[in-house]
């Protein structure tokens, strides 16, 4: 392939990268607009430089007329997430999409690389609509947390600066740094879980509170004034003590009283 052909060759990759970036950014804004939690923090993409394609083809012994299949990351997308769990949610959303086909995946989170590198990779086939018809191109989608990205960006630039000749002790320190970054992710996930649990507890307790108050109102409706007033006093105490379990028990008692009131006469 001579120099003039590269522009044409890269066109569908440029289109694929741009379209995938727009689609994945829209996924984030759509989820946000619906007030749903958006597991995507931000999205980037790039088309591999010709010099980098040639270097990789040489390294992997891919003949130049086979690079379309032999080099999978000419079109590259990167998705950054806040939490490790989000990575797997985003991967699932991509698997379910109808506008691309999953070719294979690499879980470098569970099976992190010797360098310490962690990310989740999906190699997909994306059909680009060109003036000559549909053209499938391969694209690499890397999904990672912000701290995995922090580590990979610095490690990449160090490797670039030292031309992949990092001294052993630096490599060792980078491996330690990757471990520390992952511990940060783990710690952040557990803090988040605690907040989610606390929110669930709060929602559960407000549902019970509303239920008990409605039931007491119903008792008043049946003119069970004395009983309702007693339940109200017990409710006040339990509510002050934030005793959700006690409130649930009280609700059962009021329901029994309501049953009796429904069947029997009024007091
Ligand atoms: N910073 C950093 N990025 C990595 C590392 N390993 C993989 N990556 C990224 O992940 C991409 C795909 O890596 P691999 O799954 O190993 O793919 P590969 O084509 O078999 O091997 P590469 O020659 O490393 O691209 C690379 O092009 C990088 O962008 C690493 O150790 N450090
Ligand atoms: N899938 C991707 N999405 C977004 N950016 C990427 C992706 N892959 C690599 N990059 C970034 O593109 C820039 C150029 O990287 P380049 O494609 O030359 O090398 P690489 O992917 O890191 O390595 P290799 O050539 O060994 O595959 C770097 O800043 C790199 O972080």
TrEMBL record:
<dbReference type="Pfam" id="PF04607">
    <property type="entry name" value="RelA_SpoT"/>
</dbReference>
<dbReference type="InterPro" id="IPR052366">
    <property type="entry name" value="GTP_Pyrophosphokinase"/>
</dbReference>
<comment type="pathway">
    <text>Purine metabolism; ppGpp biosynthesis; ppGpp from GTP: step 1/2.</text>
</comment>
<dbReference type="InterPro" id="IPR007685">
    <property type="entry name" value="RelA_SpoT"/>
</dbReference>
<protein>
    <submittedName>
        <fullName>GTP pyrophosphokinase family protein</fullName>
    </submittedName>
</protein>
<dbReference type="InterPro" id="IPR043519">
    <property type="entry name" value="NT_sf"/>
</dbReference>
<feature type="domain" description="RelA/SpoT">
    <location>
        <begin position="45"/>
        <end position="166"/>
    </location>
</feature>
